[in-house]
Amino acid sequence: MNSKRSTNYMATLGKDIPAGLVVFLVALPLCLGISLASGAPLFSGILTGIVGGVIVALLSGSQLSVSGPAAGLTVIVLNGIETLQSFEGFLLAVVLAGFLQLVLGFIKAGVIGLYFPSSVIKGMLAAIGLILILKQIPHFMGADDDFFGEMTFIQPDGRTTFSELFHAFTAINLGALIVGIVSLTILIVWDTAWLKRYKFFKLVPGALIVVVLSIAMNEMFKSMAPGLAISSSHLVSLPVIGSITDMGNELRLPDFSMLTNPQVYVVAITIAIVASLETLLSVEAVDKLDPHKRRTPNNRELKAQGVGNILSGMIGGLPMTAVIVRSSANIAAGGVTKMSAFVHGIFLLLSVLFLANFLNLIPLSALAAVLLVIGFKLTKPSLYKSQLKIGSEQFIPFVVTILAILFTDLLVGICIGLAVGIFYILKANYKSPYFYHKEEQQDREIIRIKLSEHVSFLNKASIVLTLEHMPNNSHVIIDGENSEYIDYDVLEAIQAFRKTAHERNITVEVLNVPEVSVMDMH
User: Fold this and answer.
1) 37 CB contacts (<8 Å, ≥6 apart)?
2) Where is each SLC26A/SulP transporter domain found (predicted)?
3) Cα(76)–Cα(268) distance, integer angstroms
4) Confidence at 430, pLDDT banded by 50, 70, 90
5) Cα gap 203→334, rounded to integer Å
6) Nearest to 210 by CA among 371, 376, 375
7) Which among 4, 176, 451, 454 would be 20 to 30 A from 353, CA to CA?
């Protein structure tokens, strides 16, 4: 069985290695940016990316999701370090959060992921696409000093997503903009069907060409047009590690003496809950994007994330989740199996050990162009059209989720979208718990209510209102012949109606419905 699986992985390496390279190019500045925003050492984000790529990718049941530090956790990390007053104390909380996720996996809590409505997941993907476009335009123009992976509406510099855009047009760096435009043009042309006919364009990712060319352009600017040269604040900034000793100095260990501090457990529980939710949302979204429509085993994913967080915390890394931006970059680049995520982890490791000086020459505007293309693929106009076609009960939660994520952050937006989605689910349940048939006889109406196969507590409101509006002097037959399950709340409502119907001269006949005792208040 294993040999068969390894053969499959080997067969797709031609697609997985280039995809892993693209994910690495996208992940590198995100890992650094998230560390910066979290108030953690820069190296910690890279360590998290390496563990997410090399370890979690192999343990996970998802073929396409990529794990690493998440923009959605930056506030939790920042507050956690402040609360515990030391980074080493925070690392202990990350390790404990990993153990909690393992427990959640073993008690099968991953089932929560199946309760997110499709419209909300699609809204999340579209919102992330829009945010990527809006957030990367300032980097594309060389006008943004906020960190590269920043995703929330209110930014660290006090501006918002929209005010940052207006500011960007007043602070354009011409060199960065030229690099960005050339990069974006190459990526769009590279993706066209007529170029994909040639093997070279299929195998070599456009993002790699863009990166190499952008470095060459900036070096050319430095020697021939210094006014266009891109400053170091708009380039990748990886810590340079010259030796094994340097590497050892960068690693931090958790402070186990803080096990007696109750605050550590509060931070750990917060990380475990938020990271698990974000992971479940991400893998659900990735499964929707997967061309092969494979399903991720959610409980196995929680266990994999748990192991990842334990290891990450033990060596000085940040908490991790499955991350939709990197995962969608993987899918957009043609990744087929988990080998692409593994390859991205290996590239991150190699970059730290051998490539820091070279990678620090990459302009962020070139990487912003890569994310602009990914953003567009996530929020294509066809997605909005297809949701609108399905009907308002799908389209409204979809749009509300997009707007809520755009103006708050991922988890708050999802909760708002979920609330609207649940409202429409309740509304749909309200309509269909029974079949209603009315016939006229000489002196009275006969109304037959045939209950459906599964009558849950969600149907109670509908049944109660229907019974309340039965016409006086009628004969009502409530038939549960087709019902496999009738919720206790519904049975109680039927019995209560049966007890009081005589007051309106209604005769009630109940067939195949179990009796329950109703509390009498008199």
Assistant:
1) 71, 74, 78, 147, 149, 150, 156
2) 14-390
3) 10
4) low
5) 10
6) 371
7) 176
d(CA 118, CA 398): 9
Pairing of strands 445-451, 475-479: parallel
**Is-contact 94 265, C-beta < 8 A?**
no
Annotated domain spans of the chain:
2-380, 432-511
Contact 274, 411 (CB under 8 A): yes
User: What does the DSSP assignment read for 305-334?
Assistant: HHHHHHHHHHHTPPPEEEEHHHHHHHHHTT
Q: How confident is the model at residue 191 (pLDDT cuts 50, 70, 90)?
A: confident
User: Percentage of residues in the chain with pLDDT exceeding 70?
Assistant: 96
109 in Cβ contact with 299 (< 8 Å): yes
Distances (CA, A) of 52 to 56, 73, 251: 5, 15, 16
Gap between the Cα atoms of 282 and 286, Å rounded: 6
Task: Please give the C-alpha separations between residue 431 and each of 397, 418, 463, 465, 469, in angstroms, as whole numbers.
Answer: 19, 20, 9, 11, 15
Rounded to the nearest 10°, the torsion over CA 497, 499, 500, 505 is: 100
Which residues are CB-neighbours of 388 under 8 A, at least 6 positions away? 395
Residue 143 has pLDDT above 80, yes or no: yes
Contact call for residues 104 and 276 (beta carbons, < 8 A): yes
Q: Is 141 left (phi over 0), alpha (psi -120 to 50) or beta?
A: alpha
Amino acid making up residue 239: P
Encoding tokens for residue 360? 């620090």
Using only C-alpha atoms, the chain has a radius of gyration, in whole angstroms, of: 28
pTM: 0.81
Q: Is 5 exposed, middle or buried (0-12, 13-18, 19+ CB in 10 A)?
A: exposed
Maximum distance among all Cα pairs of the chain, rounded to whole angstroms = 101
Strand partners, 154: 160
- Nearest to 329, CA basis, from 374, 282, 264: 374
Alpha-carbon distances of 491 from 64, 429, 471, 482, rounded to whole Å: 46, 17, 21, 15
- Could you tell me which of 51, 45, 92, 53 has the C-alpha nearest to residue 73? 45
Structure tokens at 357: 């000086």
User: What is the Cβ-side half-sphere exposure of residue 479, based on CA atoms within 13 angstroms?
Assistant: 11
Which spans in 361-470 are helix H? 364-378, 381-390, 392-407, 410-431, 460-468
**Hey, how many other C-beta atoms are within 10 angstroms of the C-beta on 410?**
25
Q: Compute how many other C-beta atoms are within 10 angstroms of the C-beta atom of residue 253.
A: 12
Taking alpha carbons only, the member of 364, 369, 359 closest to residue 235 is 364
